[in-house]
Amino acid sequence: MIKKIICQLWNQRRMNGWIFIELVIVSFFLWTVIDPIYILTADKLIASGYDAHNRYVVKIGNYESSNGNYQAEMNTDSICKESYNRIIRVVRDLPEMKDFSIASSASFPNSGSWNGTQIYNDTADIKNDKYIHTQYYEFYLQDGSNMFRTYGMKDAFTGADINIPADAGTRQKVFLSEALARALFGKTDVTGQKVYSHDKSSYEIAGVFQDYKHRNYEQPYPLLVWVYNEIQGKTYMNWRYSITFSLKEGVDANAFEQRFKKEVMPLLKAGNFYCSGLESFEEVSYMYAQRSGVINQLRLKYSLAGFALLCIFLGMVGTFWIRCNARRQEIGIMRSMGASENAVRNQFLAEAFLLVTVAFVVALPVVFHQVHESGFFSSGVTRTILDMSYWQNQPVMHFCIVTLMTYIILLVIALIGTYIPVKRASHILPADALRDE
Amino acid sequence: MIKLTGINKIYRTNEIETLALENVNLDVEKGEFVSIMGPSGCGKSTLLNIMGLLDAPSSGKIEINGTSVENMKDKELAAFRNKTLGFVFQSFHLINSLNVIDNVELPLLYRKMPAKERTRLAKEVLERVGLSHRMRHMPTQLSGGQCQRVAIARAIVGNPEIILADEPTGNLDSKMGAEVMELLHKLNKEDGRTIVMVTHNEEQAKQTSRTIRFFDGRQVM
């Protein structure tokens, strides 16, 4: 049967030529649209390494000297520290609060900024400048603050809460993400080993936590966590220290947010500091995605994909509509020779399948050439280390997945576009079809 | 073999109704060669299409080989048509994008017959109609008479008991027409196939075992 269909397609090559050319062009175009969608979506689907649900950042502001609430006598480092601690303790004592954390300003997911440093696994590497670039977070242990628990970050080996040694706050110890441990040592079981900073200071690794994404739409970047005992008093400390917390299980988040605005916010006022609002981790993430353009980029790509698919669909429906109408007599002949409606439909669907498949195969070398020359879509993050366990980082696997996705989407659209007109055409009485000459 | 009882066929549009066939009752016995005659538009072809299950009557009953086809589903109807009936049309109705042998194999394709067997049977019938040397030709490369012989080969390749021919010589000159008629008579006499033929040609009708005449959708003799 397939051989006959191929012969027939070849014999009707003039009629099929245009749709074939259209399919080749569309295959190429669709591939280039699916590629970024695949990368952005696959990166987003990687586990974030923290839990955003029911987690909040308390926004703290300080009055400018021009503000009526500004008190000049409160603007010393020691009073600022006392004032800030007072605010911290009100948050810590909220009955709905499960865990809280005092972290450096950029040390929470999707925060506006990003801290990075160079780290070495050997002093010899410092000489050779063989560093690993890593992002770092900092948090402070005072008042029971625990960033790992607040964010829901887990130990890489046990999957349980991360154990913080009693002397962790002396800045002699660090915690590494799996990605950083792998980059430095080629393995993740490195607790107790040492890493070095550029000035040759050494730090003992106190634990390794599961890979963590600072940005939701990116892959996990190597991350190092430093721990300190307490915050330092500064007049601008609201910019330096973020207060974050998680809610207890079963707490109604909406009701809590209402209560926070109404009852808690007025209490979060000390010295020249005041609470300007509350933002959930989800809001922070969405705002960042909006600001960075990821959402717009995805929207654009989805729109392009949708437009391409609509064009293909309309093209296929239109072409097969014309083909079916032009071949109504042929359908009549097939029906009079004993073809059922299903047999007619299957033959046309097989024709569409063959056309799409051959056109796609023809387009593939062009796609391959394009990828070879320009590379895959880049999400814009420069990486010194690629985690090869992610398929999107393996060139062959990446190419195969995008190719397969493109082919399946193209085929489904083509088959739907064929099925609709063929169903109509095959549903007529053979005598009526034969009358169409 | 073919039994039509109280067949009516009405074509309806938004504005008018046209009665194409009115209370047609007809029996065709096994091995008969029946011709249907009548002026243009009297319903001959409609009757043949209904007999061949290519069209549905507005009312009435059709029995072929003792089987009532009224309640058959599309798939059963298609299979029944494929095994029992062979068609020869005035304008041949060959598929121009298939060559001669592929056209002849068409009815066998829907029987899920192995390709080798299909080709063997198709070659056999093409030899019988004298076209074995034109197997790889496209229909557009053949004369009218040759096209009709291909159509006859296609009609008999599946060994159906009944052949329905709608003015099979209508598009042919007299010499080619005579050749086609000879072939049909041979199929009737030698193979014992039942043939129902619509024709305008009185001479050809006389050569058949029975002639049924139609006028304005009614059987008149």
From TrEMBL, chain A:
The chain crosses the membrane at residues 20-40, 302-322, 343-368, 396-420. Keywords: Cell membrane, Membrane, Transmembrane, Transmembrane helix. Residues 303-428 form the ABC3 transporter permease C-terminal domain. Pfam families: FtsX (PF02687), MacB_PCD (PF12704). It is found in: Cell membrane. Residues 146-262 form the MacB-like periplasmic core domain. It is a multi-pass membrane protein. One of its GO terms (molecular function) is transmembrane transporter activity. InterPro entries: ABC3_permease_C (IPR003838), MacB_PCD (IPR025857), Macrolide_Exporter_MacB (IPR050250). One of its GO terms (cellular component) is plasma membrane. Belongs to the ABC-4 integral membrane protein family. This is ABC3 transporter permease protein domain-containing protein. The lineage of its organism: Bacteria, Pseudomonadati, Bacteroidota, Bacteroidia, Bacteroidales.
UniProtKB/TrEMBL annotation, chain B:
Keywords: ATP-binding, Nucleotide-binding, Translocase, Transport. It holds the Pfam family ABC_tran. GO terms for molecular function: ATP binding; ATP hydrolysis activity; transmembrane transporter activity. The lineage of its organism: Bacteria, Pseudomonadati, Bacteroidota, Bacteroidia, Bacteroidales. Belongs to the ABC transporter superfamily. Macrolide exporter (TC 3.A.1.122) family. This is ABC transporter domain-containing protein. It comes from the Bacteria. Residues 2-221 form the ABC transporter domain. It comes from Phocaeicola massiliensis B84634 = Timone 84634 = DSM 17679 = JCM 13223. One of its GO terms (cellular component) is membrane protein complex.
